[in-house]
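G.,

No rush on this.
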Amino acid sequence: MIIVLRPDATKKQIDHLIEKVKKLGLKPMVSRGVERTIIGVIGEEDVLRVQPLEAFPGVEKVMPILKPYKLVSREFKPENSIVDVEGVKIGGKKIAIMAGPCSVESLEMLMDVGKKVKKSGANILRGGAFKPRSSPYSFQGLGEEGLKFLKDVKKETGMKIVTEVMDTRDVWMVEKYADILQVGARNMQNFNLLKEVGLSKKPVLLKRGMSATIKEFLMSAEYILAAGNFNCILCERGIRTFEDATRFTLDLNAIPLIKQLSHLPVIVDPSHGTGKWDLVSPMAKAAIAAGADGLMIEVHTNPEEAYSDGEQSLVPYRFDVMMKELKAVAKAVGREI
């Protein structure tokens, strides 16, 4: 349920209403928009239905949220959310570009890639220090050593860092190094992990599970917001279908649909979505045309020797060519890179 306040509602009136909601054993979540302040109420809504909340000073109306996800919904916040990552804004006019290798393999390689993708226009460095792999015998990542390498490249280039956290026990460690905590597709419904990153003050990048519906995706995001972290970025990275010509099927329908349903920013990962380097650029362009707020691209200096996902990684010069081409697409839809 949401409580819509009048434009002239005072701080005293808002505080009084919040205190009343808390006394009822419910959790108030405040969203301050451009024209209105809205209080989302989490808990048993039947308690509220017998309370004359419309009679409280400063209240304009009280409305139920019909969707199962409350805080993520457009009803709770009509305006688009913009996640500010230390000055890099995701969700505004400028499209965020996250680029780097799938796995952090060495400081030298990571530094080389970081400098090259930044020169081409990327503003966030991606790289996995912890790697969820289908086989227990595949490279699992360098762990904290990899996080330190990411931090070193940030210090040298000024790029922000996004990297995956896989375990609730590692959240505190990854927080020390990363600017964005990534929850991977395989952990989209790891509810304990979602709650833990929801308690963090760092922005969270939530990837859609490979077999997850849009509703399930948004419900997972709801866990993060319900824990108190509203700096959540959604990532479409392809879903499993009957098609086997590509690694996954990149669901571009999800971009405008999620934007209708939710205020959260949406980015797209065409590298995982296709699994083929020569499809990354076309799908990146399509994603921007469909309204994506950012892209996550895998880039490696020597894909043939990559520890993981070399077949879907762009070499730096192809990434540079793609970035130049993306500018025209962005301009055509009123965005910029």
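When you get to it, here's the other one too:
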Amino acid sequence: MPAYKLAARQEQSSNTQIKIPSRNGEISIGTGSCTIIAGPCSVESRKKYLEIAMLIKDMGVHILRGGAYKPRTSPYSFAGLEEEGLKILAEAREITGLPVVTEVLDPRDLDKVMYYCDIIQIGSRNMQNFSLLKEVGRSRKPVILKRGLAATVEEWLLACEYILNAGNDKVILCERGIRTFEKMMRNTVDIAAVALVKELSHLPVLVDPSHGTGRRSLVAPVARAAIAAGADGLMIEVHQNPEQALSDGEQSLTPAMFASLAQDIRKMEQLQVS
């Protein structure tokens, strides 16, 4: 038995399915179909966020994303609207009927995030924030755990083990690219890790091709590769005007680009079924 015993395939041979309540019908992640999580990197304002949520809600999105608390490399960059952003996410859920996910950075904000949102995200920078992992593990909300920017697959699964060991079995893993010597992309998406983790663990695996590549032109091809490798879903950044985005505009799709990609994903699913 590996050290990540609760996450290991030996512990549970069948795939874990994470169920997310939704006004439009329950969403199950890990059933073999592709769950699409989409929205802007940051909740920039009430007007902008509700606008993009309404634009994409009928394009195949299952879950809305948006950062209320943003961990930025520079202290001078836009760091999110905090609780005001959480309120906007909750309003978008009421208007669209779609569940919402956002990142938590600090255990002191966990109660607020759980109150307003349906899914908690642990970002790459906090993958080994063990105090935060334990606190999230004591909650009963579904958790998306992103792979650390320099983490091995085993370290990623062991971080997941902290959440499982604390009592929360609703964990979804997310490959978002790792840092390598390559400079022409923001990160290097480890497609092989998707297939490997599906072999090693019973937990669902998502891929974030937006953060993984940092280049708008690469999001769609990497998303298609992720589905072919067995990913259970995708996290994709979409903005109505990427050039004016307050964060990560260069990797954000326009709504038209996102609609085209969503259609491609459905065609791939149909081919896999047939």
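The beta strands are 18-20, 27-29, 35-39, 63-65, 100-103, 119-122, 143-146, 171-175, 205-207, 233-237. The radius of gyration is 17 Å.

Enjoy the weekend,
O.
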